[in-house]
Amino acid sequence: MTPIEKLVLGTVQLGMQYGINNSTGQPSNDEALKILQYAHSRGIYTLDTADAYGNAIERIGEFHATSSEKFRIITKFHAEATTNLLEKTPQTLTKLHVSSLYCYQFHRFSDVASFPHLHAQLLKLKEQGFINRVGVSVYTNDEILAASRSSLIDVIQLPFNLLDNMRLRGDAIRFAKEEGKEVHTRSVFLQGLFFKPVEEIPQKLAPLIPHIQRLRRLQEKSTFAENILNSTTLQSIALNYALHNPYIDAVLFGVETLSQLSEILVSVETYFDEAVLQEIESIMVEEPSLLNPVNWNS
Length: 298
Known about the structure:
alpha/beta; 13 helices
C-alpha cells in the first residue's frame, strides 16, 4: 500500500468549524464539493464522517449524487439504549448515496460494553452486506488493548502523532496488529496545534510547548522534505511519520480549504528519514492527558 492510499479524508471540517488552529471556519458548500472532487482525483478514496459532524454527511451525499466517483465511507454513531441500527443504517446510506459502509464505528469505546444489543445488529448488517467492518474510536492504551481482544471489532481508530507517538502507543498498537485488527489513526496534526504560534497556545497546554519547540528545531535541521515546494516541513514530518509506520493501515486528516489539501498531498513522501524517526520517538510527554483535545476546555 502506498502512502497516498493510506490517507483518509476526515469531514468534520466540511460540516462544522473545528480545530484549535482553524482560522477560516467551515468551507462553503461549493468549496466542500471541490475538496471532495480534488481528493478523489488525487487518489484519496476513503472518507471519515459522523452524524455529529454538522452537515458533513449531507455534503458527501450531494457529491455522490452529482458525481460518477464514489468514496468508501467510515462513519460513526452515538449509541443509546433505544438505538436501532437496523433502521438507522439504511437511512444513513440513503443520505450518503452509497449502497454500503466500509466501516461503522462506535463513537466511544465504553458504548461497546454498555449497549450489547447493538452487537447482533452490527453482525446482521455485515451479513446483509450493508457494512463491511465494525470499528471503534478509542483514546487510551487500555482501550486499544480491550478493543483488540474483542471479536466484534475489526477496526480500531486511535490518536497518533509526533507527540502521541510510538513511545506512548507502540506496545498497544503492535498488540492490535497481532490480533488481526486494522489500525486507523487520527489527530495527525493534533488539530493544528503543532503549527500554532507559541504565544497563542493556551496556558493549559503550556507543558507541551517545550516538545513543540523541539519539533520545530527538528524541522529546522532536517533535510527530510527538501523537495517540497512550500514551507510546511513540520507538516510533512508529522504526516509522513504516521504514513510510514508499518503498523498503521490508515491515516485520517482534515482540511478546511482546497489549498490546504493540495499542500498536504504535495508533502507526502515515499520514504522517511530514520534519524528523524528516532528523534521523534525519543520524545516522551509526561502529561499525556493534554494530548486529548477533549481535555483542552475542561
